[in-house]
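Handout, section B. The chain below has 122 residues.
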Amino acid sequence: MLLRLDMASRTPIYMQIRNQVMLGIASGELAAGERLPAIRALAEQCGVNMMTVSKAYGLLREEGYITADRRGGTVVAGSPGAGALSEKYAAALRIIAAEARLAGMDEEEFAALCREAYKGGA
Protein backbone atom coordinates (compact mmCIF):
# COMPACT_ATOMS: atom_id res chain seq x y z
CA MET A 1 0.00 0.00 0.00
CA LEU A 2 1.53 3.26 -1.16
CA LEU A 3 0.45 6.39 0.67
CA ARG A 4 1.28 9.92 -0.40
CA LEU A 5 1.67 12.09 2.68
CA ASP A 6 2.10 15.84 2.59
CA MET A 7 4.23 16.74 5.59
CA ALA A 8 3.60 20.46 4.96
CA SER A 9 -0.20 20.08 4.93
CA ARG A 10 -2.37 21.48 7.71
CA THR A 11 -4.18 18.12 7.75
CA PRO A 12 -2.61 15.97 10.48
CA ILE A 13 -0.62 12.99 9.19
CA TYR A 14 -2.88 10.49 10.99
CA MET A 15 -5.90 11.97 9.18
CA GLN A 16 -4.07 11.82 5.84
CA ILE A 17 -3.41 8.12 6.46
CA ARG A 18 -7.01 7.53 7.55
CA ASN A 19 -8.38 9.41 4.54
CA GLN A 20 -6.20 7.62 2.01
CA VAL A 21 -7.06 4.17 3.38
CA MET A 22 -10.76 5.08 3.43
CA LEU A 23 -10.55 6.38 -0.17
CA GLY A 24 -8.74 3.19 -1.19
CA ILE A 25 -11.57 1.11 0.24
CA ALA A 26 -14.25 3.30 -1.37
CA SER A 27 -12.57 3.12 -4.79
CA GLY A 28 -12.12 -0.65 -4.63
CA GLU A 29 -8.33 -0.38 -4.59
CA LEU A 30 -8.48 -2.08 -1.18
CA ALA A 31 -10.89 -5.02 -1.06
CA ALA A 32 -12.75 -6.51 1.90
CA GLY A 33 -10.51 -9.03 3.64
CA GLU A 34 -7.32 -7.51 2.24
CA ARG A 35 -4.52 -7.36 4.79
CA LEU A 36 -3.06 -3.94 5.59
CA PRO A 37 0.55 -3.37 6.66
CA ALA A 38 1.35 -3.73 10.34
CA ILE A 39 1.57 -0.45 12.25
CA ARG A 40 5.35 -0.66 12.57
CA ALA A 41 5.83 -1.50 8.87
CA LEU A 42 3.57 1.32 7.67
CA ALA A 43 5.22 3.80 10.03
CA GLU A 44 8.65 2.88 8.68
CA GLN A 45 7.41 3.02 5.08
CA CYS A 46 5.91 6.49 5.60
CA GLY A 47 8.69 7.81 7.83
CA VAL A 48 6.34 8.63 10.70
CA ASN A 49 5.96 7.65 14.33
CA MET A 50 4.16 4.36 15.08
CA MET A 51 1.66 6.24 17.27
CA THR A 52 0.61 8.28 14.21
CA VAL A 53 -0.28 5.12 12.27
CA SER A 54 -1.85 3.61 15.38
CA LYS A 55 -4.13 6.64 15.73
CA ALA A 56 -5.16 6.41 12.05
CA TYR A 57 -5.87 2.69 12.34
CA GLY A 58 -7.81 3.32 15.56
CA LEU A 59 -10.09 5.79 13.79
CA LEU A 60 -10.59 3.42 10.86
CA ARG A 61 -11.44 0.62 13.30
CA GLU A 62 -13.92 2.81 15.22
CA GLU A 63 -15.57 3.79 11.94
CA GLY A 64 -15.85 0.15 10.89
CA TYR A 65 -13.55 0.33 7.86
CA ILE A 66 -10.98 -2.12 9.23
CA THR A 67 -10.75 -4.88 11.80
CA ALA A 68 -7.71 -5.98 13.73
CA ASP A 69 -6.66 -8.81 15.97
CA ARG A 70 -3.32 -10.02 17.25
CA ARG A 71 -3.31 -13.19 15.16
CA GLY A 72 -4.93 -12.09 11.90
CA GLY A 73 -3.44 -8.62 11.66
CA THR A 74 -5.28 -5.62 10.27
CA VAL A 75 -7.70 -6.23 7.41
CA VAL A 76 -10.23 -4.26 5.42
CA ALA A 77 -13.71 -4.86 6.81
CA GLY A 78 -16.81 -5.58 4.79
CA SER A 79 -19.35 -2.84 4.19
CA PRO A 80 -19.10 -0.70 7.36
CA GLY A 81 -22.08 1.57 7.00
CA ALA A 82 -24.50 0.07 4.52
CA GLY A 83 -27.25 2.41 5.56
CA ALA A 84 -28.01 5.98 6.46
CA LEU A 85 -25.45 8.75 6.46
CA SER A 86 -24.53 9.47 10.04
CA GLU A 87 -25.41 12.82 11.56
CA LYS A 88 -21.69 13.57 11.89
CA TYR A 89 -21.22 13.45 8.13
CA ALA A 90 -24.50 15.17 7.38
CA ALA A 91 -23.41 18.07 9.61
CA ALA A 92 -20.01 18.22 7.91
CA LEU A 93 -21.67 18.27 4.49
CA ARG A 94 -23.93 21.15 5.59
CA ILE A 95 -20.83 23.16 6.55
CA ILE A 96 -19.15 22.42 3.22
CA ALA A 97 -22.33 23.38 1.35
CA ALA A 98 -22.54 26.67 3.27
CA GLU A 99 -18.88 27.44 2.46
CA ALA A 100 -19.52 26.67 -1.21
CA ARG A 101 -22.55 28.98 -1.21
CA LEU A 102 -20.56 31.78 0.44
CA ALA A 103 -17.81 31.29 -2.15
CA GLY A 104 -20.36 31.94 -4.90
CA MET A 105 -20.93 28.38 -6.07
CA ASP A 106 -24.49 27.75 -7.21
CA GLU A 107 -26.48 24.62 -6.33
CA GLU A 108 -25.89 22.87 -9.66
CA GLU A 109 -22.12 23.46 -9.50
CA PHE A 110 -22.07 22.11 -5.95
CA ALA A 111 -24.14 19.07 -6.93
CA ALA A 112 -21.80 18.40 -9.87
CA LEU A 113 -18.79 18.64 -7.56
CA CYS A 114 -20.47 16.20 -5.14
CA ARG A 115 -21.22 13.76 -7.97
CA GLU A 116 -17.60 13.96 -9.16
CA ALA A 117 -16.29 13.36 -5.63
CA TYR A 118 -18.70 10.48 -5.10
CA LYS A 119 -17.45 8.79 -8.26
CA GLY A 120 -13.89 9.11 -7.00
CA GLY A 121 -12.74 11.90 -9.27
CA ALA A 122 -11.89 14.38 -6.53
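Note. Residues 87-118 form one domain. Compare this with the example in section A.
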